[in-house]
Every structure is written in C-alpha cells, then in structure tokens.
Amino acid sequence: MATRADDLIDRRRLRRKLTFWRIATLAVAAIALVATSVWLARGDLAGTGAAHIAKVRIEGTITEDDELLERLEKVRKSASVKGVILSIDSPGGTTAGGEAIFDAVRKLAADKPVVAQVGTLAASAGYMIASAADHIVARQSSIVGSIGVLVQFPDVTGLMDKIGVKLEEVKSSPLKAEPSPFNPTTDEERAMIRSMIMDSYEWFVGLVDERRPMTRAEVNAVADGSVFTGRQALQKKLVDELGGEEQAVGWLETKGVDGKLEVIEWKAKGSSWFMTSEAASAMLGRLVGLPDAGVALLKEFGGERLFLDGLLSVWQPDRAGLSD
User: Fold this and answer.
1) What is the enclosing helix (H) or strand (E) of 5?
2) pLDDT digits (tens, 9 = 90+) for 223-249
C-alpha cells in the first residue's frame, strides 16, 4: 500500500511539473508572438508613437507598387514622422512605375522634408525617384544616372525557321501588335517605337531639369544614358552631397528636424510572392527544369525583365566588365 501511495504522489508531482511547463511554454510563445507582431508592424505603430525620422527603402526593379505608394501616403499622414529618408538602391524599371513613385514622393515632400540616400545604385527610374527628393546624398562609389528610356523586343524568326514553325495572323492594320518577335521589324514599326521613346525621354529630362539645380544644357549633357560615380555625379550636380545616412540626417537637421530622433524603417507589411518579377523568373526557371542556382542566373542575366511591360527606364551594364 505504501508503494502505491508513493506512486500516486510521484504522479501528482509529475503532473504538476508538466502543467507548469505547459503554462510556461504557452506564456513564452505568447510573448514571442506579441514581440514579433510589434516588430513587423513597427512602421505602422510608429505612426502613432514617438517622434522619429522615417526610412523607406526603394530597392530592386521598379514597377507600379501599390503597397509602396500606400506606405508613402501613411508616412505623409503620420504626425510622428518629422523627416523622411528614401534609401534607394535600384537599376530602374518601368517608366510608369517610376512616375507613380516620383509623384508620391513629391506629395510627401510637400508636407515633410525628404532626402534621398543612394546606396550602390540609383539609375534610370531609380534616379528619377531620387530626384523627387529635395536633397540627394550618394556614396563616393555609388552609381548614378543612366537618364533615358528603352524598349526591347526579341526576334525569334530565325529560330522559327529552324524548327519549322510558321505564324499566321489577321489584323486590322499593319502596326497592330507590332513590333512582334514573330515578324521582322519594319522601318515604320521602328519609327513608331522611337516616337514613343523620345516623347518619354523628353518628359524624363524635363523632370530632371525641373528638380535639379542645372541648366537645360547641363541636363542634356548628362542625359545620354551615361552613368557616373557619386563623386562625378556631385560635380555634375546630379547629387548634392557625398556620404550616407549620417549626412542625410544632417541635411534634415537644416530643415528643423531634431537630428537625435531615432531613424525607424517603415517596412512593407507583406508582399505577393506570385506577382513579383523575381518570383516570375523563379517560376520560369523551374518550369524549364533549372535548379535554384539556374534560377538565380536567369534573374541575374535579365530573365526578370521578361516580365516588365511597357517602356523601360533601366540601367543594363555589360556584366562582364563589372567587378563584384
């Protein structure tokens, strides 16, 4: 009987310990969940919290990004945000995407001081967005510029001849759906595309002329698609100062912002995996049987741009001539 009583006591002790650890585990999990939620929503919480400087990252290939536009609008409306740093690292993207973000930044700058801080790269539409800020800071070795517009389309007629594929089509007029990768490009088609390109180019140059302390002649001199280091860009008035975040905060101080305020990044709540061009490249790579390394190569060598529609303002360097 004594043995059974001891067993019962041991079981009760074990049950109490198990109950304690279950409660402790649930408490730790709840705390971790709350902390994670606070961290993920820090940007939104900042809008109702202490005064701070908001940082918004604009990175990668630029497209029309509804989430980013909404985030910029929330930053504009937040009474807690006293100044804004746009952290830009982009080779450019679609002209429509760049235009939408440019307009959003100008609207933001009407209410709060905005400075652009260039990381590795602010080219084409990336530079367009930087020019929307009231001050541009770049590293000495940053790559800046590539003012221009392009349209690219493949010609697969030779491949079709080799594999014996012929395209039949009926259309309302000769320029409908042209240029096409399935037909040789005509002079009329090239003239049509060039007319669109030059119209968008003039618009882009006009933005730089309006936003930068340069004469139209100075803008035209650098608007030939050339890229420049940060040091060169400073000499050509494409940027205002060399440095990083410290210098960006320093400029905000000249606009009445307390330089001791915390810089808080306003991050995206989430993103749609399927709709990103990176995801589209990955999907294409896997459909043709490429491993993950092959998918990375596809993206690196321009597969991502297969999924960009319309006119592009994007820097495309000769990768063989670049060092890591």
Assistant:
1) helix 2-40
2) 999 999 999 999 999 999 999 999 999
Q: What tokens were used for 125?
A: 């539409």
Place of tokens 């307390």: 258
Report whether 223 contacts 197 (CB < 8 A). Answer: no
| pLDDT of amino acid 165 | 86
C-alpha of 84 from chain center: 16
Sign of CA dihedral 298, 268, 208, 243: negative
| Pairwise CA distance, residues 82 & 253, whole Å | 10
**pLDDT score of 1:** 53
Which of 124, 142, 180, 313 is labelled catalytic? 124
Model pLDDT, residue 216: 95
Nearest-angstrom CA–CA distance, 199 and 194: 8
Choose, from 166, 172, 173, 176, the residue flagged as catalytic: 176
Q: Is 255 a catalytic residue?
A: no
Share the mean pLDDT of the chain: 81
- The CA distance from 189 to 78, in Å, is 48
Burial class (CB in 10 A: 0-12, 13-18, 19+), 273: exposed
Residue 73 has pLDDT above 90, yes or no: yes
Which of the four pLDDT bands, split at 50, 70 and 90, describes residue 271?
Answer: very low
In the residue annotation, 172 being an active-site residue is answered as: no
